[in-house]
Amino acid sequence: MSTPNKPSGDELGSMPPPPQGKSGGAESGPPVRPRAVDLACLLTLIGTVFAAIVTAVTYLGDETAMRELIRQALDDAGESATDADIAAAMTSFKTMIVLSLVIGVAVVLFFVMKLRAGRNWARVLIVAFAAMSVLIFLANAGAIGLGVDFLINAVSVAISVATIVYLFRAESNAYFIAVKQRRLGGSPKA
Questions:
Q1: Pick from 92, 97, 132, 164: CA 20 to 30 A from residue 29's CA?
Q2: Who has greater pLDDT, 62 or 37?
Q3: What contacts 156, CB < 8 A, 6 or more positions away?
Q4: Cβ burial 41-54 (10 Å sphere, 16+ → b, else e)
Q5: What is the pLDDT of residue 61?
Q6: CA 52, CA 62: separation in Å to the nearest integer?
Q7: In which region does residue 14 sit, left (phi positive, over 0), alpha (psi from -120 to 50) or beta (all else)?
Q8: pLDDT band at 112 (very low <50, low <70, confident <90, very high)
Q9: What is the Cα–Cα distance from 29 to 43, expressed in whole angstroms?
Q10: Does the pTM exceed 0.90?
């Protein structure tokens, strides 16, 4: 006689076996992406949007300064600068900036998608860009001064440093290793 809460031996014997992976063990599904990787992805996106906004405001916000810059560049090149020439150059410059920002954001989105999928090459590239931003800030810190520019750059560097830290936490390292092992058809080494 069996109790109502416990299955009998016959019921257990009729259960299908667990699915088998290539290595013969039970298939556990894809590795679970840790919160640290999700936070690094979020920080990368925040940093990218922040940089795009700062770039747009810096280069597209002050038309008088841009007009003077273009006039000076044309004068330095030995070309006469009519108002029509300056207007055409400003339009080209604005188009180039907007196009560069769109392409840059699209590339970062692609890297973030691959990072979320556990691709280590995306982690390496994002860390390289973040490290470059930190090094450039440190090299130019004295010339920036302590004004708004310093604050903007410091926020960018803080985002970069936090991204690097999250991407190299133990759970992040384990995730990238597990994804690679699963992709190669093996099981992660203990």
A1: 164
A2: 37
A3: 47, 50, 51, 54, 133, 137
A4: bebbeebbeebbee
A5: 82
A6: 16
A7: alpha
A8: very high
A9: 27
A10: no
DSSP string, 17-44: PPPB-TTSSBP--SPPPPHHHHHHHHHH
Tokens for 145, please give them. 């001064």
Q: Which two structure tokens, joined as six digits, stand for 5?
A: 């809460």
Burial of 184 (0-12, 13-18, 19+ CB in 10 A): exposed
Q: How many CB atoms lie within 10 A of CB 186?
A: 12
Residue with tokens 């150059």: 89
- Which residue is associated with the tokens 């006689």? 1
Distance CA 171, CA 177 (A): 10
What's the distance, CA 141 to chain centroid? 24
Q: How far apart are CA 94 and CA 42, in angstroms?
A: 28
**Residue 12 identity:** L
